[in-house]
Amino acid sequence: MGSVRMTAAALAAGATFFAYSAQANGTLNLICSADVVICEQLEGAFEKETGISVNMVRLSSGETYAKVRAEARNPKTDIWWAGTGDPHLQAASEGLTLEYKSPMLAELNDWAVKQAESANYRTVGVYAGALGWGYNTEIFKQKNLKEPTCWADLLDASFKGEIQIANPNSSGTAYTALATLVQIMGEDKAFDYLKKLNANVSQYTKSGSAPVKAAARGETAIGIVFMHDAVAQAVEGFPVKAVAPCEGTGYEIGSMSIIKGAKNLDNAKKWYDWVLSAKVQSSMKEAKSFQIPSNKSAEVPKEAPKLEEIKLIDYDFKTYGDPAKRKALLERWDREVGASAN
């Protein structure tokens, strides 16, 4: 009888031990600024491999930057993964993120390493993608619309109410578009263009990928987005065609940053190193994520837009990643475009 009681006690003790062990790896507070499908895939895979419990929130990069700034005295976030590089660089320049030289740096493409170097290793490149748009081929056929191949074409009167783009205050995609047009045309001409484009815009969305999802559903004809988001809709079977503008276009270096004051710093570094690995980056295509991965050995999805075939501008990440420049451009956008938005 005594031995039975001992065994039960031992089992109870063991159960307590295992319950403790399961929680011993701790937690990670993650903000993900990519599409929710890839966010959830990575969250699940990391938890399974490490035993670390991930509290993941999906926010656009503009929203995340605002949140990180607001919580600077008492950070609620450990790590920020994905989203356009500009707000990551802005956070770095304001000392909101932490310097970290990952042992994975040697495995990364030059553009990803340069992103880290330019921010004194307070951020790093995790993927790249070119800006363009996707349009619904069925709507174009029904309405007898002509394919827009250049930025200038989007001003055509036939596209009145047919275009969606995100709001650059909340969306890194739209801020990249704003900064791209300023670099191609000059600031005054770019704002003249945006005011004319406004006549054709039916909605300024919160999320950068939302416009092409709306196009895929037939709610709008054109969504101005990163081209890989348009490709993702086409791969899902929607009648969407991706376009790279003829005048040239900007691109993003999707980035990752550890938040200064992170409560779970060791786990943040584990995520950082893990998500830079070729194995993890190669798996992103399973979530219909078609960016160019930053790890040189990662498999590039065959559907991914080929950057060498796109006329890319020499995007000035340093200038347009500066908080003062961003603030000035967004204030002007609010005054001249947002105030008269449809």
UniProtKB/TrEMBL annotation:
<dbReference type="Pfam" id="PF13343">
    <property type="entry name" value="SBP_bac_6"/>
</dbReference>
<dbReference type="GO" id="GO:0030975">
    <property type="term" value="F:thiamine binding"/>
</dbReference>
<dbReference type="GO" id="GO:0015888">
    <property type="term" value="P:thiamine transport"/>
</dbReference>
<dbReference type="InterPro" id="IPR026045">
    <property type="entry name" value="Ferric-bd"/>
</dbReference>
<feature type="signal peptide">
    <location>
        <begin position="1"/>
        <end position="24"/>
    </location>
</feature>
<dbReference type="GO" id="GO:0030976">
    <property type="term" value="F:thiamine pyrophosphate binding"/>
</dbReference>
<keyword id="KW-0732">Signal</keyword>
<protein>
    <submittedName>
        <fullName>Iron ABC transporter substrate-binding protein</fullName>
    </submittedName>
</protein>
<dbReference type="GO" id="GO:0030288">
    <property type="term" value="C:outer membrane-bounded periplasmic space"/>
</dbReference>
